Give the backbone structure.
Amino acid sequence: MQIFLFFTTFSVFDNFFFTFSTNSCRPAFCICDIFARLNQTAMDNNSVKENIKKTRRASGLSQSDMADRLGLSRTAYNNLEQGETKLISSKVEQIAEILNTTSEELVLGYKPFRKDSGKLKDIHAEFDAAKAEMVRRHTEEISKLQKQVETLSEYVEILKDSNRTKDEIISMLKKKLADESQK
């Protein structure tokens, strides 16, 4: 029974890591999201055009609407969105204004955190809480596993003692059998 519990507990411990790594845990998702955002430093024209296209569609505007608001022909705006025309910073600002967003959000693809934003502090606090909970769970799990190792070690000693007793009985029976065969 103890051996079964050992493997069951190990499986639960293993599943915890699997669960954490598949981002089903909200704090883990936030942490992964932050790291993904930090790694998005290299932006190219394709990323920007995709962000503009996605934001335009989400805003319910057509390419013609955008072209009219920017003072461009539909073909010129289409070329801009397709990446055939490089963006000019003033156009990015205008596009952001029309889409009711910031140029940073269009270029980066997400709303950047401001240093004075409470959101960053909230994420940091959530990360610390998740980290503390993980440490607590790991410590608890390690303690359980150590107890199981101690129990299994005791069983090993009992089995070794039983084996020595068995060997002594076999040795005595062999000796008795040899003595009887000599009589």
Q: What stands out?
A: The longest helix spans residues 118-182.
